[in-house]
Amino acid sequence: MERLFLLCSGLLVTTVTSQHNVCSRPQLSGNIEMSGIQRFSSPGEELALACKEGYTPLSGPRKIVCTINGVWTSTKLKCIPKQCPHPELITNGELFYEDTVYQSAINYTCHEGYMMTGESSAVCQANGTWSSPAPECIPIPCGLAPVPLYGMVIYDKVIRGNTVNYGLKATYICNPPYALFGNPVAECTASGTWTKTPECQVVTCPPPESIERGYMSNNEKREFFYRERVKYGCESPYVLEGNVEVVCQENGKWSEKPSCKAPCSVNLQRARILHNGKKIWIENFQPNRVLHLEIVSVYCMNEARKCGYAVPTQCIDGTLNIPKCFEEPSGVEYTLKPNSLPSEIDQC
Ligand SMILES: *[C@@H]1O[C@H](CO)[C@@H](O)[C@H](O)[C@H]1NC(C)=O
Ligand SMILES: *[C@@H]1O[C@H](CO)[C@@H](O)[C@H](O)[C@H]1NC(C)=O
To answer: Could you confirm whether the keyword Signal appears in this record (predicted)?
Structure first.
């Protein structure tokens, strides 16, 4: 009576029982299998080994023999799992896998806005092929963008047929006098629908307001439509400041209207001034008028260097400030010694 356990290269365990010279059925590991179903073998009998389904023999003898001692010969047979080909990347999607051997799996997903045609996963089969080909990710289509009444749609790209792809944008325009309310840009979403379509609504402005000292190109007392324009002008010698034209805006209000600015007079009795590059005695400055934003210069005296210099001043809506350095001469000085005035002596 003896009991013996033999470990052969970790792959094959043979148990020998009390029956002398008889090998009992070997216990196999490492994905090895054998043919036949008999429980005992006599010395000299051979047993063919093979790799299990999905595994390939790498090396080692494929047979074991029952020896005279009732022990199977050892085997160094190695079975390795079959390899499936490496999967290729898919466009507009991703794949996840850890290995490409028998029984490993690949999971596929599509990017947002794309839907899958085909299987979302594949398994490496016993014959080294994947259970299904890679799926395709195709864009989720939207129908054409809805067109609002009195408006139109301009797509970002030329479209064919009556579907468009995820991510396409459309810009809306309303035909004046209709104005657009809402987001002017809509987009084909991942769920195959368009974002909110804006509306085209009629917009009117009240009659434009008149301006003081000015006139308008249109005095009709009616409602004006969105984008209608009216021009303004000023009576001479008033000068228009701001935009010549106002427009009825989307919010039902006119854009900012201009105003008419007053001219100035040069309030000096005795002086010579510089206006538009010309030196003029004040009594000859007729009419005594400087338009809004126009510049005139008066002459001041540099006492230290005994020279004269021109100082500019600007007319701002009826106000012309005379520079502080200006000193008006006395009547006697002005009449009898005009050559000594700052405007007449050497300039600094
Ligand atoms: C594939 O998906 C299955 C089921 O959702 C999951 O159990 C498995 O871990 C995934 N495999 C990989 C590699 O992502
Ligand atoms: C591989 O095995 C699968 C499943 O048994 C079978 O459908 C397929 O035709 C086999 N492919 C090849 C190339 O043998």
So the answer is: yes
Query: Ligand 1: which atom is nearest the Cα of residue 97?
Result: 13
Ligand whose nearest atom lies closest to the CA of 120: 1
Residue 173 CA to ligand 1 centre (angstroms): 48
Q: pLDDT tens digits for 18-28?
A: 446 889 988 88
CB contact at 8 A, 246 and 208: yes
> Residue 123 pLDDT more than 50?
yes
**Tens digit of each residue's pLDDT (9 = 90 or more) over 17-58:** 444 688 998 888 889 998 777 888 899 998 889 999 999 998
Tell me which fold the domain 23-81 belongs to. Complement Module; domain 1 (2.10.70)
Report the residue among 101, 103, 107, 132 best suited for mutation to probe ligand 1: largest number of ligand atoms under 8 A from its CB. Answer: 107
Compute the distance from residue 107 Cα to the ligand 1 centre, in Å. Answer: 6
DSSP per-residue string spanning 251-319: TSSBPPP-EEE--B----SS-EEEETTEEEEGGG-SS--B-TT-EEEEEEEETTTTEEEEEEEE-BTTB
Domain 141-202 homologous superfamily, CATH: Complement Module, domain 1 (2.10.70.10)
Nearest CA to ligand 2 atom 14: 127
**Residue ranges of the domains in the chain?**
23-81, 93-139, 141-202, 204-261, 272-340
141-202 and 204-261 in the same fold = yes
Please tell me the number of the ligand nearest to residue 102's CA: 2
13 pLDDT band, cuts 50/70/90, is very low
Pairing of strands 12-16, 27-28: antiparallel
Question: What is the distance in A from the centroid of ligand 2 to the CA of 103?
Answer: 14
Percent of the chain with pLDDT over 90: 76
Give the residue, by CA position, lying nearest to ligand 1 atom 8.
Answer: 107
pLDDT tens-digit series, residues 284-329: 999 999 999 999 999 999 999 999 999 999 999 999 999 999 999 9
Fold for 204-261, please state it.
Complement Module; domain 1 (2.10.70)
The four Cα atoms 169, 173, 174, 177 give a dihedral, to 10 degrees, of 160
Architecture of domain 272-340: Ribbon (2.10)
pLDDT value, residue 20: 62
Q: Could you tell me the CATH superfamily of domain 93-139?
A: Complement Module, domain 1 (2.10.70.10)
CA–centroid distance, residue 51 to ligand 2 (Å): 18
